[in-house]
Amino acid sequence: MSPTESAITLTVNGARRTVRVSPSTTLLEMVRTRLELTGSKECCAEGECGACTMILDGEPVNSCLVLAVETDGSEVTTIEGIGGAGMTPLQESFLTAGAIQCGFCIPGMVVAATALLERIPRPTESEVREGLSGNLCRCGGYSRISAAVMAVAGGNAAT
Amino acid sequence: MTWFEYQRPQSLGEASDLLRKDDSVALAGGTDLLVALRHRAVRPALVVDLKSVSDIAEGIEVEGDRLRIGGRVVMSRLTRNQHVGRHFPALAQAAAVVGSVQIRNRATLAGNLCNASPAADTAPALLAYGATVIASRPDTTRSIPVEEFFTGPGTTVLERGEIVTAVELPIPPTTIGSAFARVTRRRGVDLASVSLACILDPSGRARFGFGAVGPTPLLAESTFDELATDEGWSRLLAVTSPITDVRAGAEYRRAMLHVHSRRAFQAASEQLRAAT
Amino acid sequence: MTGAGLGLSTPRVGGTDRVTGAQRFAADIAIEDVLHIALVHLDCGHAAIEEIHTSAATGIEGVVRVFTAEDFPNPVPRFGPRFADRPVIATGETKYHGEPLAAVVAVSKEAAADGAAAVRVEYKELPGVYSIDDALDPDSPLVMDPGLRTGDDPLADSNVRQRWDWGWGDVDSTEAELVIDEIYTFPMVTHFSIEPHTFAAAPEGGGVTVWSSIQHPYFLQGTLASLLDLPISKVRVHAPDPGGGFGGKGFPKYEPLVAMIALELGRPVRLVLTLEETFQAVRRTNARLQLRTGFARDGRLVFIDAIEDFMMGAYADIAPRVISKSSYFAAGPYKVESVRAVVRGLMSHTTPSTAFRGFGAPQMTWAIESQMDAAARALTIDPVEIRLLNLAGPGEEIVPGDRPADGDWRQALNIAAERVGWGEPLLPGHGRGISVGLKASATAGASYCILRILHDGSVSLIAGTSDMGQGARTILSQLVSENLGVPMERVTLVMGDTAVVPFDYSTSASRSTVFMGSAVVDACQKAIAELRGKTAVQHKVSVEDVVFTPGQISIDGAVYTLPEVLNDVFGAVPGEIIVTGSQRGEGDANHPLGGPASFYEVSCTASEVWVDFETGDFELVKHITVADVGKAINPQHVEMQDEGAAVMGLGHTLMEHLILDEHGRIVNLGALDYRIPTFKDMPATMESVLVENGDGPGPGGAKGSGEGGLLATSPAIAAALSQATGVVIKDLPLTPERVWEAMHGGDEGHEQ
Hints:
The structure holds 3 protein chains of 3 kinds. Chain A is α+β, with helices and mostly antiparallel strands. Helix content of chain A is 30%, strand content 16%. Chain A has 5 helices and 5 strands, in the order E-E-H-E-E-E-H-H-H-H. Chain C contains 17 helices and 28 strands. In chain C, the strands form 7 sheets. A 7-stranded mixed β-sheet of chain C has the order 3-7-1-14-11-12-13. Chain C has a 5-stranded mixed β-sheet with strand order 9-17-16-15-10.
């Protein structure tokens, strides 16, 4: 039995894209395989790890729990859309804070932290921990990641 | 995931018709449904996305002595809403611990209820606050008290084609005390092994909602006088029937029910005293 | 700018790609025309396969073919790092929950998954061996076909795969004032790398090319060459940087299956495991450790008499090595007169256990250190004092005749005690614990590298270490930069392709800084010698007159930069300096472990907790780790790994355990119910302190590091809980429920 594919049009990282997808394709799968943006990662595939975090219409979501067809007309930002040509102060801060080990969780972490700082420009440390607790890092880099976020909070960054 | 068709109806009538089909399922935030689809726990032929149904509200409105939370309202919205924060703090607290930020940005209050998990985080607060579920079909609308909504793990009184368009809560006429508590295996994002909400009003009435300690979320009522005795507490908790599962043992759940119910009662009492 | 300098925290090499999403992990690499594989497994631990019906699956649009044991040579080829006991695909029966018995190949991941769901298997569930007690019960079924053992194995009719008897002195005649006799258990835990294992293969040039998220690409290359009867040169392994390994990606798992399917189909295929399948593929060896420990009145440890059982799983994988290498150090970092340890590696119908950060030492440390605390309580000696009394000082032996202590471990312990505020008054409900862990590093093994100084003076270093989060690229670049005086940004690392990168034994055992690091220093020295020699010829002076300092050469007061020298040496026709570096550990065939450890990794953990007595819930107020690292080439990298190890230790200490049901199924299969620490589970204060005495065998006196932080987590926290509550817990994890049970549940938990 073949699924009915349908064409959806959405804005990904500022560019309008039209893609034909089957209803059971997740946003994550579509972005990784059809749009060939592989920065967003798949780990648990059930919304527990945050490795696939994207910003959908202004809010961070687990893209593994969103059907691609749901995003028709939406605006999506992936890790590839953060910072454009250069790196954002937050990304720089991850580097200098030693927040990166294996790096597999990092794209999701950066997207989630970017969204967090949009909503709360001057978060407390506990707001950072709460805001990122949906992103797992098995290398255990939590304290350095939260230090990296705190370092740029409220425009602290030396850009 | 299995193959399915996807529809995004614009009207309640259309949505209701589609959902009357045997192997259709409703999609609200998708945070439970997509997990079930992935595990092939549900294998629908049709997924009906409710996000464009104009009759299902997206807002939170005060209507007279009631607060009406639209069927499309997501958890993060609840946590930030001033009316919810002011009148129903235990609900705001419960909504704030549903999954992660990413989950709360998708998961709806209505979906949390319809999924009917015994551990549904918002259910204890809704029970304690005396909320009603507004379920609609094109021709009929009914108000279902939350305590009558659940029929078992994963099941509700909703009939095929019936859609939750809102949840309503009576705004307390006087100052009340409230508390929310939860037992989890870790501090970050977790499913509850025990959850509860406690509402006290100045007349001496106590209402408790319990989660993860029975086949459905449970409501129990008592009075300050009753709760001055151990027997009173035992009677209050008699409604619960905790089991042992992967998240906790029955004995621990029972013990935590006692500890956290008393603590919640204490906290709510202090709030009430401070306000009156 | 010249050398990066040893001891400088230069930022992560490769960090930019990781923070922008540009880093390509194994599942991100585009492979043209690739087919997708989904595995079929049964919903029980042990079953006889009667019939596999594949027609419904092959009827699904997009499914190309379904492979079962019948599609492979008969008997199905077997492989494994210690014994060739693991079949490429299950044959006859499945021996653990999740063992693949069929592989569905399709044009899309979705079609492959649908195909896998459509394969119908007739099977009979068989009684299984799901616990240590099961494995030791003579009435239990044999997990391993006795025919697969060597002819005269006296253990062939049992589920004991291997037994070790360690010891020295005479336990029975050693007098002790106090004997502590307890049983400790350490549960099954899984690696949970955020990158699920990913494998791909394609036929190429009369051989096969494989992509794998593997830590030891050369081991995989050898395994495939031998299984496929190919020359090693015809097996090419691409090993992109793993997204977390922790030991779980060390040895081949499903690569042979994937490679054989690719060769059979003549097309590239890829298998990306689900997270659930990774739980079923890899785990830590669970253990039950029964220790009788004798102490003198003054707290001196005088004997250890132990029966130690480790449950390996359905196939041996590297578990025998995990068990022997950790249990051999029967008293950890302590001196002890006599030891008698009976150690058994047991087969079971569970996921094969494998290497996992700490390599058996966390299990051993849990028991040894808990015994030290029990003795301290019984003898009313301070837990720090009893450890200081028994720790081996530099040069003192921990196993007679073996490599003596190579660090000042008492110094590390004292630092941990000081940082946690040992001895300061405690608030009500608070408790502190302190603990020491020892892990032996690599015994034998070789690392090779190729170093090229290109004609503009930049450097290409070709080295086979896998950069899986430890920052190998950074460390090795720093060593090149330091030794040759070439700026970091002009050093490029080439890794992860066995066709161009020379042999490296493994990325494990915290060995890379010491082994590959030394190989890189060796290459740098050879390159310098060659530069000096060539310059001497060019300038018609003797080699002794050519002086190299990092970044430049001087002859009789005249100074030349590296690019100038290269230009000078090669003239109009560009060339380059190409040298190899190597570091070999030959081992010792007569040593029980195949050789003494090249260094010891020792770590101290000190923790303070606050316990909610009514609920058993507790908070980590302070968590200190102190690592004896010899020399931190990049302190930030060492600290971040040590902190990471501590967090991983918090996982198995506080919340992690795989739970099996009576059918041998993993009940908490998946991220929803197998919990690992999150941001909010961090201690309120966490510190990582490094001890640097330059007493290691690596560059600058470095030892390996990065595992130590988890060795001693469990006993330190358990001791803190005991101090706060008065109860003693001997089973992990220390969940609030378990703490509550110990406090409220009658006899259990109270010390005899």
